[in-house]
Amino acid sequence: MPNTQSPYTAFATLLSSNGHPVSPAELHGLLIGRSCAGAGFDADAWLADAAGVLENDPADAVRNALIGLQEMVKAELTGDDVALVLLLPGDEEALTDRAAALGQWCQGFITGFGLNVGGKDLSSDAKEVLQDLVSISQVQDALEESEDGESDYMEVTEYLRVAPLLLFTELNAPAAPAPKPSLH
């Protein structure tokens, strides 16, 4: 029988079977949040931040999954794509479960971002994105199983696929060289 587990479900099973009380959504949010805050992509630093939510030392399989997740995120954030792939339950799951995971993703993001942003000044756009994430992290109870709930969920996920890139671009931009005089 073919294995039809989604990557989300497979990762959730891996985590829970290793005694980690955390959802893949929260870990993915944590990873994107810290990456957007300028933490870079050092595997040990990522594993150290992840250890905070894992609550016990990850087995090799979990470590490898986390490192693989980071490689994926690094490719997305530094590539030419203009949207992230969010690690969330599939559309076949109940909306309440997907909404809960969405909230966990945002909480993870806020945690990861907060751990790594230091005293950096944020633009008003960046602050707005963070405010939105805080609001979304508290939204899961408001989404109901309905057409409207589904479309709200879709809108929020679309926003989350793009909004963090603004933070990443702002906080990870190489220092701009002084403008050269134009040669016209």
Automatic annotation (TrEMBL):
> What cellular component GO annotations does this protein have?
cytosol
In terms of Gene3D superfamilies, this protein maps to: YgfB uncharacterised protein family UPF0149, PF03695 (1.20.120.740)
Family matches, as Pfam families: UPF0149
Q: Which family would the database say this protein is a member of?
A: Belongs to the UPF0149 family.
Indicate what this protein is called per its UniProt record. Answer: UPF0149 protein CCOS865_05453
Q: Which organism is it from?
A: Pseudomonas reidholzensis
For this protein's source organism, the top of the classification is: Bacteria, Pseudomonadati, Pseudomonadota, Gammaproteobacteria, Pseudomonadales
